[in-house]
Amino acid sequence: MTLRDAARKLLEEHKVQGVLGYRKGSLPFRTRPYLFRDPCEIEELVFNPFCGLNLARYLLFLPQEVERVAIVAKGCDGRACVALVRENRLRRENLLILGVPCPGMVDTRKLAEWEGLKEHEVTLRGGEIVVRGVAYPLASFLDASCRRCRYRSPLVYDILVESGEVPSLPQEDTLRELRSLPEEKRWEFFRKELSRCIRCYACRNACPMCYCKECFAESHKPSFLHPSPTLRDNFVFHIGRAMHLAGRCVECGACERACPLRIPIATLFLAVSDTVREHFAFEAGVDVAAPAPFVTYREDDPNAFIR
Amino acid sequence: MRLSGNGVVVTREAFLEWLSRGRTFVTETVARRFRLPFPSVPTPKAVLLPQHEALYRFFWARRTWNVHPLPPEGTPILLLAAPCEVKAVTDVLDAVFLGNAPQDPYYATRRKNLILGALGCTFFEATCFCTRVGGHPLSREGADFFALPLSSGVYFEGEGVSGRPLASSEKEELEALVADLEKTAPPPFPEKTPEYLYEAFGRDIWEDIAWGCLNCGACTFLCPTCFCFDLVLEGRLRGAMIRTWDSCMFPKFTLHASSHNPRSYPMQRVRQRILHKFSYHPLRKGVFGCVGCGRCVALCPVNWDIREAVERVVSCAL
Amino acid sequence: MPCEGIYTPCLLPIAEIVEETRDIKTFRIPRPEHFVYRPGQFAEIFVPGVGEAPFSISSSPTERTFLEFSIKRIGSVTQALHRLNPGDTVGLRGPYGNGFPVEELLGKHLLFVGGGIGLAPLRSLVNYVLSPEHRLSFGDVFILYGARTPQDLVFRWELERWRKREDLTLCLTVDEGNASWEGRVGLVPNVLREVFPFPCTGWVSIVCGPPIMIKFTIKALRELGFAPGDILTTLEMKMKCGLGKCGRCNIGPYYVCQDGPVFSYETLLEMPEEY
User: Fold this and answer.
1) Which end of chain A is more exposed for a tag (fewer CB within 10 A), N or C?
2) Is residue B3 part of a domain?
3) Backbone phi, psi, residue A241, to 5°
4) Which domain holds residue B305?
5) How many domains would you assign to chain B?
6) DSSP bridge partners of A72
7) What domains can be seen in chain C, in order of their start residue?
8) Transmembrane segments in this chain: where (chain C) (predicted)?
9) Do A202 and B245 touch (CB under 8 A)?
10) Residue A121 half-sphere exposure, CB side, CA atoms within 13 Å?
């Protein structure tokens, strides 16, 4: 069954009151999130390599009348759904995960190098992307988080859509180069990038796991950091957020795609996720039942200070 | 004021040499279109209203509190911007910081020290909509000089650069360009748009229009006409009063100390943004508070398009 | 420039503090020479090390030597203010706002309706009108003031002073009385209907108080026959610069810090309902 058929059927049979999916955007190579309510709107549902936004972000912002919702989920979106259920933000029975195997999301900045590129001039063919008749390996066009993705297909789903040929691209270790640098060079990398940050909070607002009603960055009493984007305050914000997301980040890369200044901010969160994976053998959103390392209390915790 | 046709043509090298004589910056729009050897700023307001600046210092010393205002500073710089970005400075920022008494001395000093040049546009990008809000890609209005790249050099209107008069082929090129832009220009918004939007305040459509917006500050921070700022005191026994960019998209923007918040819902803040730019500012000052540069459309993480929002509200009214 | 820059406060010592109620205090500071203001205007008070906040000036401009601010303890700045003592330093920036349209009120009879801390900005105009140099320029004065409980009434000594005057009518009420309260009990809008039976020609009403009280008082005033242009009120919005620059305090196209905080009900009707 195609994605559209599955979504339409769900609405027609009133299994859900809405389908969270993507629609064509107002610009080439952009899509936008949309809550489909009527089966006849499903005509406009799309799924293509420009659907980088993590729709799970909207699961906590649905209109009241939508009790049960279906969500078009890539692997990472599916992980976010599971993580939100795990954190008791959502009821599993109110969520219908419409899984789509994901070929990886194309970094639209790469396409900007071709002037006046039209949408029909870009096609995907197996593990390749064809731009104006010339084929390139798809992997070189993907977002950083997609190049290292481990779960291209959602692990937990209610319906898995067949989407034809989805290339199984090798998983790259995109942080290897950064990790191999000496400490001063790594510091310089982050210092240079974070000094550009203007603290618009697009990264935070695009993240499905950042749902606090009042973010620590905006807290006045107590005040943890100042609104001015000095290097010090920028570090406090991003590192603080990385700590809050440790063990919760689903490695979708929505933060980096959202940044208007194209700061490679996902680098920080992906590095933290790798550390959690290494030291706690834990990945967020993969197993609904698995206890999350930083929010689970055990009487026999290995660390004495917390017992 | 469009180009008069009475300018001169200079070589690209001469133009670049002239620009290199002082501290020159280009906006990101210009940097994206042309390879110019000057540092770029993401938005023109960054040189007039810095992201954060200290206004005065305070400290406790010799058993008393002291306050030292910091003097306004500005070094001469030149900013090469697109005509829409120049319009943003003259129509909105100047009106607020200079036209609305009392004048802001920090802005005024930087403004006095700024040479603002317009680099004309030869085509409309998918995100451009300056002609919808009363602008034009070849407008010289408000700029200290105007330049336009031609196939054989740079057309220049202004002082300080000497060149040769336009050749007839160049005149034809300009005319063809003007005609082409006329054909492809997005049409202006309906005349009574500010009034229609104002009357639509209480309608039901806003929840639907606002859905999808993340309420981050990306659009407002990069927008050349957005000027909202916050005054924050940093420090206890010594510190400064800092002015930083603020955004009407943030939930705490209008939060009272009593915890009453007239714009606590995301929809209300999105509505405020649209109305402020396309209704309140034009009703107050006679010009749109948006210059159609299209940054917000290009940079929005969810492709929320303010043009579509305005069209939808206006079409409800019509 | 009075304080060296439009954003810089002048530092002044607190001369006196009066505890009005359990959470309202009136602060008196010396009035700088350059500080010329109209009733209804406000100023930004700066607490070193804490922050700044806008407060309406509750003393009349006819008081040449001091300024008074009646401040309710709500947030971090007001909390810090309430912990200060006479002699401590605060900063002053202002005056800002449009103030009451005193020229248009000349010769009119004035009905003041205040609720709770809302009496503070009204007091500035009341004492201006009652001052010897201005009293004869205005007609009758009727003051209706109410609070939730007798302990919440502010300016008790001022109310006594007003009650003793023969050239005004003062009516007090509380929402809930207590054992020692012998006065009227009732919500301000209801009491208004009872005590103001005059035809309202030649009267202008000035209302200030919590938003809900303003809403119902205006309703009652309309029933009594007041035209929208003859009802004035002051609005509150979160403010920072006070100068019409930071863009925060707008209600529709109106900036509360420059076009307000005093607005007529006529203008309120044109505004989007967002306050």
Assistant:
1) C
2) no
3) -65, -40
4) 8-317
5) 1
6) A98
7) 10-96 (2.40.30.10), 102-234 (3.40.50.80)
8) none
9) no
10) 12
